[in-house]
């Protein structure tokens, strides 16, 4: 068995898009971190291109925190098929569904990518607002299947 | 002021490579998550290419957990200039320096990328062991400057 949770997941069996609790971390004092696998693309069939993914990362990281106060981290997967979302002390799967729904709707309404300049970003040239909106729109179109992982 | 910590960081002032505590999250029960900005590339000057970054993600996520038991997450930045590392209940910056040193040395010794197949990975074709080693080697060569952020 490998250390990384997703290395023990059969990526040929999953049905993207989906939202899956990938694991929890228990702190010694009683806090719990819930890490979700937000899978946008079918593994090994499709993937997000980087400028759209990068813009979506900026918008999800910024906008999600207007809807939820306990977000620890939102980060892309290196395989470009999804994101990991880590939340502390909220065990509600429904809250995560609702959070992603609201956040992606914010993306559709955005008129610019936040912080896409050389002062605030590590690679300001690698952004696409339209690319991010296309990814968000496709994900929202399939909202009914987010809860079906396999 | 923006929600995302790095959007309030002046990326024109930093000197990569560096390791920086980006922020902490306090759980209501007393646990603390420390999130580090592991910056491999100078913002807006250079970036990692995706196959090497993706392989490095697999190796850092897998190997780091052999050296530290309290890792919550290791994930790439969408800007391709670094990674975020989240650790729970270990406030030692020196431990993070040592963890990255050991983990990148494991990368140099690796003979294959763990989990780079269609069962265990979301995009098995997008990997480069040599690309990951080049990134790791360059980072280790500049180890003396990891503690200098600006
Ligand atoms: N995962 C973090 C930050 C997301 S935005 C990250 C961006 O910051 C910048 O340094 C880079 O351009 C990168 O793309 C979070 O959830 O806060
Ligand atoms: N951030 C996580 C996982 C890293 S490996 C992630 C990989 O899992 C797979 O689903 C994808 O191929 C992706 O590239 C962690 O720290 O455990």
TrEMBL record, chains A, B:
Pfam families: LuxS. Binds 1 Fe cation per subunit. Its EC number is 4.4.1.21. InterPro entries: LuxS_sf, Metalloenz_LuxS/M16, S-ribosylhomocysteinase. It catalyses: S-(5-deoxy-D-ribos-5-yl)-L-homocysteine = (S)-4,5-dihydroxypentane-2,3-dione + L-homocysteine. Its cofactor is Fe cation. GO terms for molecular function: iron ion binding; S-ribosylhomocysteine lyase activity. The keyword Lyase applies. It is an enzyme of class 4 (lyase). Keywords: Autoinducer synthesis, Iron, Lyase, Metal-binding, Quorum sensing. One of its GO terms (biological process) is quorum sensing. The keyword Secreted does not apply. It comes from the Bacteria. Fe cation binds at residues 54, 58, 121. NCBIfam families: PRK02260.1-4. Homodimer. Involved in the synthesis of autoinducer 2 (AI-2) which is secreted by bacteria and is used to communicate both the cell density and the metabolic potential of the environment. The regulation of gene expression in response to changes in cell density is called quorum sensing. Catalyzes the transformation of S-ribosylhomocysteine (RHC) to homocysteine (HC) and 4,5-dihydroxy-2,3-pentadione (DPD). Belongs to the LuxS family. This is S-ribosylhomocysteine lyase. It comes from Salipaludibacillus aurantiacus. The gene is luxS.
């Amino acid at each position: 068995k490998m250390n990384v949770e997703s290395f023990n997941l059969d990526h040929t069996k999953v049905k993207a898009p989906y939202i899956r609790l990938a694991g929890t971390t228990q702190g010694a004092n009683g806090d719990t971190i819930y890490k979700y696998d937000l899978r946008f693309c079918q593994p090994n069939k499709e993937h997000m291109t980087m400028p759209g993914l990068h813009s979506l990362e900026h918008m999800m990281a910024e906008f999600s925190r207007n809807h939820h106060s306990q977000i620890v981290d939102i980060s892309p997967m290196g395989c470009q098929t999804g994101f990991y979302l880590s939340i502390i002390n909220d065990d509600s799967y429904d809250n995560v569904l609702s959070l992603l729904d609201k956040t992606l709707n914010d993306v559709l309404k955005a008129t610019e990518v936040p912080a896409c300049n050389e002062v605030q970003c590590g690679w300001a040239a690698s952004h696409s607002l339209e690319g991010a909106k296309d990814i968000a729109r496709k994900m929202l179109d399939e909202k009914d299947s987010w809860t079906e992982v396999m």
